[in-house]
Amino acid sequence: MRVLVVEDEQLLADAVATGLRREAMAVDVVYDGAAALERIAVNDYDVVVLDRDLPVVHGDDVCRKVIELQLPTRILMLTASGDVSDRVEGLEIGADDYLPKPFAFSELIARVRALGRRTTVALPPVLERAGIRLDPNRREVFRDGREVQLAPKEFAVLEVLMRSEGAVVSAEQLLEKAWDENTDPFTNVVRVTVMTLRRKLGEPAVIVTVPGSGYRI
């Protein structure tokens, strides 16, 4: 899952981004509304965690632009105000969910994951295919009943492949969904991660390389 965090309180923004990355999400961070619009114009995000009271361009206007562009991106709006009227107004503008500050980080993660599921075809919360069982909420992976310990990027790549339900996923698509914008697109990081993932999942291999196209399960 790829997430954009837009928050002008830099310490909070960076803390949220760090926490989401630990949950195997690819996260980009910006600190004002204008920078958010620039990122949204060039990257495909599953979820935008959007502070409402932003400098340069207000969060409401960022939200309206996402709606205007008819993007599949889901918006979780944050605000320091807990007033019901503010929450209603944010939802009426087009936000998909609303979370007042301060918030429990576990709730933020749950809401981001719930919104991320709504950007794609509805799938069960726990994904199962070819003897693999992946639970995004618990960050658990089992192969034929055996628990497999994965690093965050390995987990993210496996989740993207599982959600494709047998379709081929290109290296470029994996890079876009599992890594942030600071990753060099010309590195072999995808190939190396898939190779390590195959080894950890064990035999028989379930991740198939489709020459010239990508990977599938």
From TrEMBL:
The record places the DNA-binding region at: 124-217
Under the heading InterPro entries, the entry gives:
CheY-like_superfamily, OmpR/PhoB-type_DNA-bd, Sig_transdc_resp-reg_receiver, WalR-like, WH-like_DNA-bd_sf
Q: Which UniProt keywords apply?
A: DNA-binding, Phosphoprotein
Q: Which residues cross the membrane?
A: none
Q: Where does the record place the Response regulatory domain?
A: 2-116
Q: Which residues carry this modification: 4-aspartylphosphate?
A: 51
Describe the location of the OmpR/PhoB-type domain by residue ranges.
124-217
- This one is known as Response regulator transcription factor
